[in-house]
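To the structural biology subgroup,

Please find below the input and predicted structure for adenine deaminase, which we are adding to the shared reference set this quarter. The sequence is reproduced verbatim from the submission form. If anyone notices a discrepancy with their own records, reply to this email rather than editing the shared folder directly, so we keep one authoritative version.
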Amino acid sequence: MLEQRYRWKNKHIREHVSILDGKLSPTILLKNARYLNQTFRKWMTANIWIYKDRIVYVGEMLPENIDENCEVVDCHGLHLVPGYIEPHAHPFQLYNPHSLASYASQFGTTTLINDNMVLVLQLEKKKAFSLLSEMRSMPSTMYWWCRFDAQTEIQEEELAFSHSNIKSWLEHDAVLQGGELTGWPKLLDGDDLMLHWVQEAKRMRKQIEGHFPGASEKTLAKMMLFGADCDHEAMTGKEVYNRLMQGYTVSLRNSSIRPDLPKLLDEIHELGIDMYDKFMFNTDGSSASFYEQGLIDHMIRIAIEKGVPVIDAYNMGTINVARYYNLEYLHGNIATGRVANINFLTDEKNPTPISVLAKGKWVKRDHKKLDEYKDLNWNELGFGPLQLDWDLTVDDLQFSMPFGIKMENSVITKPYSIAIDASLEELSMEHDECFFMLVDREGKWRINTVLKGFANKLSGLASSFSNTGDIILIGKSKQDILNAFNRMKEIGGGIVISEDNRVLHEISLPLKGVMSDKRVEDLIEEEKILLSLLKERGYRFADPIYSLLFFSSTHLPYIRMTQQGMYDVMNKMVLFPTIMR
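Predicted structure (tokenized):
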């Protein structure tokens, strides 16, 4: 437990041992189990004894003591593999950590290693740690990162990312790594405080996750010297090769904005790379609808289809991750002493399980979901509805900036000179320029410009979902922007589209305005409607959720809207500051 120093107390371990002595009965006995043994790198048959949340024996023996409370399962005809591990989850992309874990478990991903960004920006440290503690009671295992920077230019960053806060996060038992290092240019520029945090993480035997898109061989070497251990930003086979050459573990990505895995595997094989021990998989916090096809199980399937040996494909989603994080004694394999996370397959080439054990509990049985994920009291944990005690007025909707922001794809934005008359109440539907605002969630400041390339027929959109939880407003009609904002405020946060002064679609986000409390399955349908409506109105990219998230994200080029103002990423300067309201 997170409140105690060890995962199992002494008395629990004595109970585990007493099962082998026949004094206690297992709670589950898996007989005749054909399972993946990663020590011998082959499929073997054994009997697997489980007591509550732990595997207490794997081998030929059967227990001496089997009481009426022991569930005996004949696994003949099934193939057992360890529960899959997602090493790079961003569990706040409209869904929340609880709903994502519940959904992921149905596809066999029972351990997630999670970004802590939203917890740092939205909660006090004590509340955040209470949430981590609450999540210990779930069948899924939840680990966390420790961010070193906000990934944007925020006000009072030195408070959210103070030395004492970073130190407390790094020391937390549930935190496995520092990063991801979106602020790595600061290291190169001489930021010794960030280097100290990296050093502290390494001293604690915790890993450092990089974020190095397009990095040169020399930069990769420098970041390895600074302490980076892994990077998930390779977009070509050559970039994978360069990372391996510099000693990195490479996390191969397949996400909603970078569905790269098939191409990466083809190019890796073309380069003659046929060793897979330094690879693992990640989905990089994809939008909910992308997960309709699965999570790590889907990546294992792609790997098998692309010619990766079956055992290596499973290892990349299990034991490789556990070894990298020094957790092999708990996760990533079916062996004595491990947490009882086991997937039951009908075919070794079909990694989506028909049944799933997570911490020794059935969360899926014969294709049916079992509801073992009890609801959290989000209000008590600090995630109540967004409460705005201020109003947006027509006076706020003044647009006179000389240049705006142009979208190159879902997430890359460039500056451009505004040639239209932005003083009108409505913009023409004949072009793809919209009014664009970022407003402080406390109502203290705003910044107004024009956004090109997002849509050409969008009347009004308001979103409390953003990198920092501030309010994004986009649209052609000032009246519909106001209407969307007022509805978003009324429902306690969310994403709202308004047209002809009526609400066309809304996704309620009652958890601080940044997360839904609905099941991922329901959220997928709401997200599909949002995408369809935006595409009908001229949105031409893949992922509007990430577009909204990354408008403020300064780890990507070139121009961003931040709490400091319009920000030039490459030159590290504020071009136009925010305006106080």
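Summary notes: The mean pLDDT is 96. The longest helix spans residues 520-536.

Regards,
Lab coordination
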